[in-house]
Amino acid sequence: MKIGVAREIKNNENRVALTPAGADRLRSAGHEVLIEKNAGVGSSLPDEAYLKVGAKIAPDAASVWATSDMVMKVKEPLASEWPHMRKGQTVFTYFHLAADRKLTDAMLATGSHCFAYETLEHGGGLPLLTPMSEVAGRMAIQAGAKYLEAPAGGSGILLGGVPGVRPAKVLILGGGVVGTQAARMAAGLGADVTIMDVNLDRMRYLDEILPANCRTVYSTPHAIREALPETDLVVGAVLVPGAVAPRLITRADLKLMRKGSVLVDVAIDQGGCMETVHPTTHAEPVFVIDGVVHYCVANMPGAVPRTSTWALTNATLPWTVKLAQLGPANAVKQSPELASAANCLDGKLVCKAVAESFGMPFTPAIEAAASIA
């Protein structure tokens, strides 16, 4: 199979979908690898590193899309990339379709086979989402600490406080990978941390592994409203796999918060779990509503590509090899994990959570795969 790696064009997206080690692995499995010129530069991976392992360098994005059977990316294809996509081509990347009807319609119109990192299920987890969730959860606290500073528009409180002065109070909504990593970072800095979830077994686990300055509270709208007046930093970390995130904080709830408080919505890729959010970029990461600073960067790990690119490839590579080996139709038929990653096949929407988000027709992946040559 001819596998192409396109350079990311999203604002300040410095990751690349494949390291030279990954390219070497694919080459060893008998595949051709084509890397767009300078695709890895943002991750400190020059073209020469790919050439050394036998990959080829394409002069531009059009060449990658035109000649590749499968294209690997990190983020969803942007509008300028849609015309390059074609019927029968496989695309393996983060899509987050449930948050974007226009993108969903565009992917269906191309007739390409869209396999999404974020919906691949294995062993009861989401292994291709986990590494970036770990990065984003930790970064959420770094970003929150920065924007709590007065020059950045915050209330001027140090996250961990100092002896004789109370630390900041951090509220984390969701006890999954993002929430757990955020809690660990915030607690390590000395903050007063509350983590809310609706899974009692998960909260028992968190009580055991998190330090004493973290507490768990069962999440209800009332519990959230009670916590907001005393909270300095809120981290939205709720995930419903493949589906749009539930809205847990409303516009009216902002009036309960102190001026200069900060909201970091890590769920923004799936539409966000706060009513007042919209995606932002690393170039313009924040906006203010009712005196509350909102940080909603949709590709947070892109700011630390020397960590994120390796973490991502470590997770995706075994599945990339398998998808390339089997091809899209057989991958769906023979691998339950890759079947769960399939979102669009040959113009059909095969991810039930996305279909339900938009009220669109749903086709089981195995049924759609049967029609692929």
What does this protein look like?
The model has no long low-confidence stretch (mean pLDDT 96). This protein has 13 helices and 15 strands. The protein has 373 residues and is an alpha/beta fold. Helix 2 links the parallel strand 2 (32-36) and strand 3. It is globular and about 65 Å long. The strands form 2 sheets. Strands 3-2-1-4-5-6-14-15 form an 8-stranded mixed beta sheet, with helices on both faces. The chain folds into 2 domains: 2-126 and 305-369, NAD(P)-binding Rossmann-like Domain (Rossmann fold, 3-Layer(aba) Sandwich), CATH 3.40.50.720; 130-303, Rossmann fold (3-Layer(aba) Sandwich). The two termini are 15 Å apart. Helix 5 (130-147) packs across helix 6. It has helices at residues 20-28, 47-51, 61-67, 101-110, 130-147, 177-188, 200-209, 221-227, 251-254, 305-334, 336-341, 352-358, 365-369, and strands at 2-5, 32-36, 56-58, 70-72, 90-93, 113-116, 169-173, 192-197, 214-218, 233-236, 262-265, 286-289, 292-295, 342-345, 348-349.
